[in-house]
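DM from R.C. (forwarded with permission)

"hey, sorry to bug you on a friday — could you get me a structure for this? deadline for the figure draft is monday and I only need the backbone to look sensible"
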Amino acid sequence: MSKTALVSSVSHFDQLLSTSKIVVVDFYADWCGPCKAIAPIYEQLSAQLSRPQKIAFAKVDTERQKQIAQTYGVTALPTFMVFKDQQVISTVQGADPRKLSEVVKKLAAEADSDGSGGFGEASSGDAGWSGISLPKGYDDVTDQVDVRGLDLLNSDSNFGDARTLFDTSKPSALASGKGKDESAASERKKDWVESDTDEQLMLFIPFQSTLKVHTLHVTSLRPKDTNQDGDEIPMRPKTIHLYINRAHVLGFEETEDISATQTVTLQPQAWDKTTGIAKVELRFVKFQKVSSLVLFVSDGDGDGEKVRIDRVKIIGEKGEKRELGKLEKIGDQAGE
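My reply, with the result:
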């Protein structure tokens, strides 16, 4: 579900400005091609950086809300305005993803440094949580995930959704310093994913550009003890099957007839004791032109029926930008 508010009236807009310290606003129109092109990037920023009462994202249809557009002198589309304490402090005109991301992430980092918390660790202009060091010569390309196309099967609705896995903030279990989920997230939505009816999870990840994927960083912060309700302690993923360039999420039964591009078995020692991160190293030659990735967790590292994942990061290289809204199907066979 999108975290972006669609402004319905002048009073609604005023309410948004008064209830959040920072509000990022996208002024757009349905007929505007550049508006549609940059929309997935705006939604990704919204999914990653929205925080209650701290930073909010909104969209204003200039055809329906002409009074708001006129009040703020909108003459070009798209126009992005950033409000802080109900005052415009920054404006970006045109569909410039780099400039928009820089402006918004800088403000997010500044908001975090104010001491109110909620954005995770921010340093050197990076508003996100870094986790562990990256392989030499490769970058974190998680920002290329098209969050609007994410799909997650067999997840427990009492926990986070697919977008939670790509949130740039530090997982709440790490923020607590104790590794216990309930104490860290008692006052907010649980910011991780757990499987529902059994230990399997199926995640579909489309990308905004064709990537070369080198490594996955999978975070799983299993609590040390049962919670007060005596619920089952979730397991960490053990066996992960990866499929590239699928047009949509796979059904669990489909995986019986389709060969995985790579299958990885994570041993207990693979998990970093401090961050709860496992490096899933890929056969790089098979992941050279990746427009989508299906991650299938078939079992966990124990005898339970629940698997937990807190975050997923994609490490590699950016390639050609693909046509937004259209998934390139490069090949049906593994490694094509």
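R.C.: lifesaver. The chain has six helices and 15 strands.
me: no worries. Confidence is low (pLDDT under 50) at residues 115-127, 177-187, 324-336.
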